Amino acid sequence: MLDSYFKYPGVLRRMRRGPLADYIDGFADEFARLGYTRATVIRYLSLLATFSRYAGRVGHVRPETIDVALVKRFLLQMRRSAWTRTVARSALGHAVRRLAQLFPVTVTPAVPGDPDDQLLAAFVAYLQGVRGLQPRSCEGVALIARRLLRWYRASRPGQALSDLGGQDILAFVTNLGTTSVTDRTRSAAVSHIRVLLRYLHGQGVLRDDLARLVPRVPIWRLAKVPGHLVWTDVLRVIDSIDDASAVGKRDRALLLILATTGLRSQEVRRLELGDIHWRTGELQIRRTKCRRERVVPLLEEAGRALATYILSGRPPCSRPTVFVCHVAPVRPIRFASTVAAIVRRRLASCGLQAPVRAGAHLFRHSLATRLVQQERPIKEVADLLGHHSIDTTAVYVKVAISQLERIALPFPRMSHE
Fold first, then answer.
1. Rounded Cα gap, residues 117 and 115, in angstroms
2. What tens-digit pLDDT sequence spans the chain (417 residues)?
3. Are residues 268 and 382 in the same domain?
């Protein structure tokens, strides 16, 4: 495979030196499979060959001896531009991950141990196995738990975790309140703290249940109307997308799905080819926030855009996920921030100011607002959005000003004597 990128025998001999000599062709195959351009593959292979020769010079004759520390030393000694070092870091990241798969015992990242790692691992297992939380939710709870434990170790050096008291909890919550931006963030953080304290009490680490001492942050759920776009702006954003390119086809299909079905970011990112029922015009949403499958209608225009993208815009990918990244390596869209970036870019192209938290939920809120303004039954809106409780959908009723005007009681006339 290396012969496809380099012709001269002297260059090929130089590329196959050092501890990575037997693996350089495999790296070339992998880069091509991941969809990197020819120029990028040549650049990555050249940097890997340079690193392999460097590793051989400093005494690493076997690939299993290569570790993260050696990669860092190589990057520090590179007399190249900052951009070249960034490219080398990406190329070497592929190499280290591949070697870690081949030699899992010897190639391990050098990460300093944390005294609370074992406790937090058991806590995360409890959150997933007993509480039934999704992995992303577990990450948020574990993050706050780690911050609390690190704060306690730093402020009370030498003390055991069993000595944690109410004053410590109140001090940490006070400190946490100064770093949280919104009331919603503070409310979520103190809720996560209660979960950790109940777990520690149940495991016998804490004698008393300190969760009852954690103050609550009031959140008035229906106090604000979710940010949304007027429907004419939604149509303008979608109509402005040029679907001549593959990325344009993807973005148009993605935004049409969001605008007509109200899917959450996670739901649209996990949508697979087998979930599209073309004959019945439906989408099967299997992995939802509430862990309840539901079926949403696939409207004609959204279905046409989706079919166009799948047939002539979607790059080859080993995964059945519908929406993928078009920049190599081709892979499913994994993060909500990627969807949010697509939304912000398309809003900016129309000259619209994106809200602070523009993303899939911006179109979700816009659809719900549109349906309520059309006087659709609130239960129908809740079923489409996949709300577990109809109370969650009640926040959108506040935008139906015309309907509220009709049910408002007339003000009695005052008689003047």
1. 6
2. 777 888 888 888 888 888 888 888 888 888 887 778 888 888 888 988 888 888 888 888 888 888 788 888 888 888 778 888 888 888 888 888 888 777 764 444 444 556 788 888 899 999 988 888 878 788 889 999 999 999 998 888 888 888 998 898 998 888 887 776 677 788 888 899 999 999 999 999 999 889 988 888 877 766 666 778 889 999 999 999 998 999 999 999 999 999 999 898 989 999 999 999 999 999 998 877 666 788 999 999 999 999 999 999 998 888 899 999 988 778 899 888 899 999 999 998 988 876 656 788 889 888 988 888 888 888 888 888 888 877 777 777 666 555 555 555 566 665 554
3. yes
Task: Count the domains in the chain.
Answer: 3
The pTM of the full predicted model, rounded to 2 decimals, is: 0.66
Residue 417 falls within a domain, yes or no?
no
Separation CA 121–CA 99 (nearest Å): 26
Catalytic positions are 264, 289, 361, 364, 387, 396
Check if the beta carbon of residue 267 is closer than 8 Å to that of residue 290.
no
Alpha-carbon distance of 96 to 396, in angstroms, equals 50
Cross-strand bridge partners of residue 321 = 272
Angle among Cα 140, 287, 310 to the nearest 5 degrees reads: 115
Residue 303's nearest CA partner among 345, 252, 264, 369 is 252
Residue 376: phi and psi, rounded to 5, are -75, 145
DSSP 281: T
Structure-block tokens of residue 212: 């009852």
User: Does residue 355 sit in helix, strand or coil?
Assistant: coil
Q: How far apart are CA 263 and CA 269, in angstroms?
A: 10
User: Which residue, of 213, 240, 266, is where some domain finishes?
Assistant: 213
CATH number, position 47:
1.10.150
Q: What is the DSSP letter of 295?
A: E
**305 with 253: CB under 8 angstroms?**
yes
Tokens of 4: 């496809």
In contact, 228 and 369? CB cutoff 8 Å: yes
Nearest by Cα to 297 from 262, 252, 266 = 262
**CA 71 to chain centroid:** 28
Residues with Cβ within 8 Å of 234's Cβ and at least 6 positions away in sequence, in order, are 259, 363, 366, 370
Range of the domain at 12: 2-102
Instruction: Give me the count of residues in the chain.
Output: 417
Same domain for 247 and 172, yes or no, is: no
